[in-house]
Amino acid sequence: MDQEEPRNGDSTHNHHGLLHVSKKPKLALPISEPEIRDEFSHHQTGVARINNGSFGSCPKSVLAAQRKWQLKFLEQPDDFYFNTLRNGILKSRTVIKGLINADDVDEISLVDNATTAAAIVLQQIGRGFAERKFNQNDTVVMLHCAFQAVKKSIQAYVTRAGGSVVEVQLPFPLASEEEIIREFKEGLAKGKENGKRIRLAIIDHITSMPCVVIPVRKLVKICREEGVDQVFVDAAHAIGSVKIDVKEIGADFYVSNLHKWFFCPPAVAFLYCRNSKFSPDMHHPVVSHEFGKGLPVESAWIGTRDYSSQLVVPSVLEFVNRFEGGIEGIMKRNHEQVLKMGRMLAESWGTNLGSPSEMCAGMVMVGLPSRLKIMSEEDALKLRGHLRVYFGVEVPIHYLAPKEDDEGGARDKDGIISGYARISHQVYNTSEDYEKFRIAVLHLVEEKKICKLLSTE
Ligand SMILES: Cc1ncc(COP(=O)(O)O)c(C=O)c1O
Q1: Taking CA 188 as the corner, what is the angle to CA 178 and CA 205, rounded to the nearest 5 degrees?
Q2: Domain at 91-316: CATH architecture
Q3: In terms of CB atoms within 10 Å, which end of the chain has fewer, N or C?
């Protein structure tokens, strides 16, 4: 596997034996539609899977590469452990370094997922409170719609140790990034009230629900100007859906799942930690033999387990380079297609999109007809379950609680829009998937169905 021939001349070894990653793929013949269908032929048929955002997707050729790694381990585990594993992980880290413009491969660690990366960052902050390096009540600032698992991690590691939290409300639906910047600045001011110090700001690059591309570079810059100690960008959805330049973004820590939009099998994420005085205190939550040797090495051995998803990153690069424009081409087409499909749905239902096109990547929020009466989180979940079971459509639904003053909300001809669907587009999607969704919703509206009464079995 180590010596596998590179395809399309995209990733090659130079005369020092180091992996060289060319960002510009040399394309022989772009992948054809039937080949794409074959790569994803393990997907359940009959399901309009317009939710790549939740769990991503992995093509057959990458699964085959993963299987080879698994067998290589089982054939001779000791040799694999001593001679193959670490070098294989280093190659994957080197690919990532090239893709995100990091300075040094030692700034990149591979971990299971964004949740693990959040634990690494937040445990470091928690230790600052527990060891009394920080004053009690110093703060962590984050977006109100930060991922639930990250919010729970703050409770577990930071608030318990004495830190306080300021949540910044994300306005939605949105017309411009200025609205976010304004709210964020207010959040920082609140975080600094009464002489408190902001020890950490957590900024999503692409929020999960509702999905919005956040002006992360501008917010990091504001954090620096306002004297925030450390900045963590939760970019779980970023790699494979937006261009990443970690130097330009300028955060201390930046995590992205590789299993969401970068075609890796679950579970693998990279955590970038900018070389800084904080680096020696970054530790994997699972302590093993390599503790104290730096996060990338600690993370590369956390006990006996399957490391294959971390080893297939070069194979993923081969896969994406079969597409015109490589991963950047895929990103561009997904963005264009998801917008086109989103606009088509909004027009047919007489609703709206949740944010302007430049604040979307491969996912878009589409308003649902108010006649469906989505009045709670439970209603949203019911509609999602109903669409899956009765219509074969997999799409997450967001409930948007109406504001008291009704300000900023969107309306359709029958009332306030209180529910949005988050649609994704990935290379395996076709316009029929969205058409199926469009018709399902129109059918429910015509039948005068309201969410509370929908069945999910
Ligand atoms: C913004 C954000 N952060 C963190 C996560 C957690 O990712 P994982 O479940 O892979 O740890 C997600 C998952 O959707 C997310 O959207």
Answers
A1: 55
A2: 3-Layer(aba) Sandwich (3.40)
A3: C
